[in-house]
Amino acid sequence: MADQIWIGIILITALVLFVVDRWRYDFVAMGALFAAYIAGLVPRQEVFSGFGNAAVITVAAVLVISHALWRSGVVDSMASSVKKVGDRVWLQMIVLTGLTTFVSAFISNTGAMAIMIPVALHLSRNGAGHASLMLMPMAFGSLLGGTITMIGTPPNIIISDIRASHGAEPFGIFDFTPVGLSVAVAGLLLMWLTAHFLVPRSKSRDTSHSPYDVSAYLTELYLPEGASLVGDTLFEFESKIKENFAVIALKRGKQLITAPPRYQRLKAEDVLIVEADAETLQQILDITRFELNAEEKLDPRFLVSDEIKVIEGIVGHDSRLIGRSASDLRLRHRFGVNVLAVAREGQPLKPTLANVRFKPGDVLLLQGDAEVLNDVFNRFGCFPLAQRSMRLGSKRKLMLPLAIFAGAIALSAFNILSVPVAFTMAAGAMVLANVIPIRELYEHIEWPIIVLLAATLPLGDALERSGAADTLAHAALMVSEGAPDFVALSVLLVVTMLLSNVINNAAAAVLMAPIGISMAETLGTSMDPFLMAVAIGAALPFLTPIGHQSNILVMGPGGYRFADYWRLGLPLSVGMSVVAVTMISLTWPMYG
Question: What's the pTM value of the predicted model, to 2 decimals?
Answer without folding.
Answer: 0.70
